[in-house]
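Dear support,

I submitted the protein below through the web form. The confirmation email said the job was done, but the results page showed an empty box. After a refresh the structure appeared. I'm attaching both so you can tell me whether what I see now is the final result or a partial one.
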Amino acid sequence: MRVAWVIDNKYRDLYGLYSLKKKLKKNNIELILINKYHWKFAIKFFDPHYVVLPNIYKTSGLPILKFCVTHKIKAILYNVEGFHTDENLLQIYFPNRYIKNLYKIFVWCPQEKKYLTKIGYPKNNIITTGSLRYQGNVTKKFPLKVKTIGIISSNKFFSGRFYDKEGSAIIYQIFRWKDENSLDAKHTIGFMHYELDFINVFKKIIFSSKKKYNFILRPHPFEDSDFYKNKYFQIDKSITINDFLAKVDIVLNHYSSATLDALKLNIPVISLEKILAGSYKYKSLDNFFPLSLSYKVKNIKNLTQIFDDKTFLKNYKKKYKLKFDKIFNKFHPTKNGINLMIKNFNHFEKKRKFNFFKSLFFLLVYEIYYFLKYDRDTAYRFYSIKDQKLLKKFDIFNDK
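What the results page shows now:
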């Protein structure tokens, strides 16, 4: 039996899939990772029993879902983003019009299951698998003092990597939406103002620290890291978030869910929320629970005092570590997501739907075309030895 798992961004979506692939193999199930660009040709070639979707957005997962419905392939949704309790965001992640076509839905938290049940999706078809990313056993020692400070960017417009390289990312974003009153246009322009404020705050923090500490910026997966080339701080180009976190003693953050990665690894997280209070606010993330897990400083002066305070880390460990464990377990109670997924890939017999040689031909032609025209680094290629090694690097367990 075969399961095709659609990868949206290999640097974000591969966590835990190496271990899942190994366990599925023991159950005579082959897990095949395909990408969102060649999906149609790959599905026809591999002719899977199940297809796992990263989302059901109109420009991404929805066409794949419609294809699966047409060809009677069982589709499962496992959103690459989760932990949202805001109803507006939940409507985007789980559009009522289309979820009825899903065989099952793997959700990250009980709150998502509650919402899906509320809008009428069958309760027995909702499996709280959690996020595999947060179910590993990788950790590090709690820091004794602050030497290196990591900052995690949530930016994606100013420094975006997906635009016409002959032009400017900023100009592209400004001219992207013709209707200035649309929500997309307002959010794009508003968030670009936020991004500028974010960078300016980062500058103030660096200058106020008077060269006492090393600073490393971790760009968002959708950012072009070259945008940040400078002489004032390092730019992290690690493949996994854990590789980055291994280099730092403390993390500064605002909107990024990487708060969870840091706290799971015993790294203190300080929120810039109050410092950026006067900037554009992404209201849909007000209830995003990782925001409540960070230590919130009042201003930059307060922040620099904390860096120098020898008792801060001890007090943080006593108070905030316990707070994190309590809140995290409420939103993410699942510890055995891999086993839960395996149980829901039920074996069944099926006849091949697509011509093997014809499908292989079109897959090869598309791969050559895509490589020559786009060659996006975020695309996972199942035949690439480099990507196969990358998959193993994203394993969530130490005992490889």
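Response: this is the final, complete result; the empty box was a page-load delay. The two ends are 25 Å apart (CA to CA).
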